[in-house]
Design a protein that fits this description.
Low-confidence stretches: 159-166
Mean pLDDT: 94
Strand order of the largest sheet: 5-2-6-7-8-9
Shape: globular
Radius of gyration: 22 Å
Structural class: alpha+beta
Helix content: 40-55%
Strand content: 5-15%
Number of strands: 10
Distance between the termini: 50 Å
Length: 460
């Protein structure tokens, strides 16, 4: 399996790729299945049920709103917030879906969207079921979907993941599905990780399409960061978490202008960039999965750090950074998981740090072996990290974790660049360890808000 850079990096909305973008996409796919029915004119009511992690943290992650938006026909990448809000208000009032190629369908957001806190569905902790009922209340169709992290959605009925491989294994010039295979192909071809990844992408797209598509990804990342750096206020959800990025930016600019910078000021900038992205994500803004929304700040923060603080930085190499990062993200997703509900935060911020470390290592001159080493170092030092969001919101501890993940990524790249790429623990083994750790981790510590920091709050 070869995952495209455009599957790893998807433009969407916050606060969660698995809990917001996934359910919205699943609802859209359900509508497509209804339109394909010969009995679609018999549909009178639609219902949706969220299970497992989607039930426990769905309201904090906006899963309820996401399902409604999907049933109204909205896609994460093109959501018009103003139009969506108007349609949501209308739905609350008339409790009816008015959709192209379908009859008017009853849907009461209060009664027909159910958070089921019983046992999760068997396929994945993020399971959901959609039903279409006839006039007698009998189901015409029932569809099950799993949101498996990073906005990917699986429908077990058709056995197809909601992901478009850049090319089939037989068509890819470099069909590596492990880090060891990647290194062997790099050695045999004399190509870098980004060059091999680009060849695979261009097996199904023109060079211009690849270049323009990656440009759109970076533009969305950069714009998200810029908004987060200047937008003030309180994040939604009830925790009353203040946005800190604008105040921190002002403070650091004052220190810079008065030459009162500490030696670690560059690290503070790196942390700030990541915080800005994830505050914007927590507010439901437009963001890019990298590889998930909850970990969206790490990769763009390290890229901005490279551009603003690294000697010899070249904006033309952003493509190489993102291609290398996507190659590592694809390996992790294929061989383990990027889902917080399945692997904990090691699968989200840990994966993001590994991706960013490899990307930075390459653009700073690292060959494939040091890049693989950088990814392993970054991932290794996130193993065992839980996903325990307070109140089910992607705020505490998620925002700060992105900043620390970015710092680990830069450190990992720096360490790897001082060696020749040889190291004790291969990336493949580290990925396997992450998968096994996630499987052994208590469900309470995997995006349910039932354990860890989520239940250990200071008394106020």
């Amino acid at each position: 399996m070869f995952l495209s850079v455009f599957d790893i990096f998807k433009i969407g909305i916050g606060p969660s790729s698995s809990h917001t973008m996934g359910p919205m996409t699943a609802a859209l796919r359900f509508l497509e299945s209804l339109r394909a029915l010969s009995t679609r004119d018999d549909i009178r009511r639609v219902q949706a049920r969220l299970y497992g992690s989607l039930a426990y943290t769905g309201k904090g992650h906006g899963s309820d709103r996401a399902v409604l938006l999907g049933l109204l026909g909205h896609e994460p990448a093109t959501l018009d917030v103003t139009l969506a809000d108007l349609q949501l208000k209308r739905l609350e009032t008339d409790k009816t879906l008015h959709l192209d190629a379908l009859p008017p369908i009853a849907f009461d957001p209060t009664a027909d969207l159910v958070f089921d806190y019983g046992p999760p569905l068997p396929g994945h902790p993020n399971g959901m079921m959609f039903l279409a009922l006839n006039e007698d209340g009998a189901p015409i169709v029932m569809e099950t979907y799993y949101s498996i992290g990073g906005g990917f959605v699986v429908n077990p009925a058709d056995q197809h993941a909601a992901q478009n491989d850049a090319c089939d294994a037989d068509a890819c010039p470099f069909p590596f599905s492990s880090a060891s295979a990647m290194l062997k192909m790099a050695k045999a071809s004399g190509l870098s990780v980004s060059e091999m990844k680009r060849c695979n992408e261009e097996a199904s797209r023109t060079p211009a399409e690849v270049r323009e598509g990656i440009g759109r990804i970076w533009q969305a990342m950069s714009s998200c960061m810029d908004r987060g750096l200047v937008t003030e206020g309180i994040l939604p959800g009830g925790l009353k978490v203040c946005r800190r990025a604008p105040g921190m930016l002002k403070q650091m600019r004052e220190e810079q202008s008065s030459n009162r910078r500490q030696p670690h000021a560059a690290t503070d900038w790196l942390y700030l960039y990541a915080m800005a992205v994830n505050e914007e994500n927590a507010a439901g803004g437009r963001v890019v999965t990298a590889p998930t929304n909850g970990a969206a700040g790490v990769v763009p923060a390290v890229i901005r750090y490279y551009l603003d603080h690294c000697l010899g930085a070249d904006a033309e190499r952003i493509d190489d950074f993102l291609l290398t990062a996507a190659a590592i993200g694809g390996l992790i997703k294929h061989n383990a998981s990027i889902s917080g509900a399945e692997a904990g935060c090691q699968g989200e911020v840990g994966s993001a740090a590994a991706m960013a470390a490899a990307g930075l290592c390459e653009v700073l001159g690292g060959t494939p072996a040091p890049a693989e080493n950088a990814a392993e170092i970054a991932l290794e030092h996130h193993l065992g990290m839980t996903c325990d969001p307070v109140a089910g919101l992607v705020q505490v501890p998620c925002i700060e974790r992105n900043g620390l993940g970015a710092i680990k990524a830069v450190t990992a790249a720096s360490i790897a660049l001082r060696g020749d790429g040889s190291h004790f623990m291969p990336l493949d083994n580290c990925i396997a360890a992450m998968r096994e750790t996630g499987e052994a981790m208590s469900t309470k510590l995997k995006e349910t808000s039932l354990g860890g920091l989520a239940v250990n709050l200071p008394e106020c």
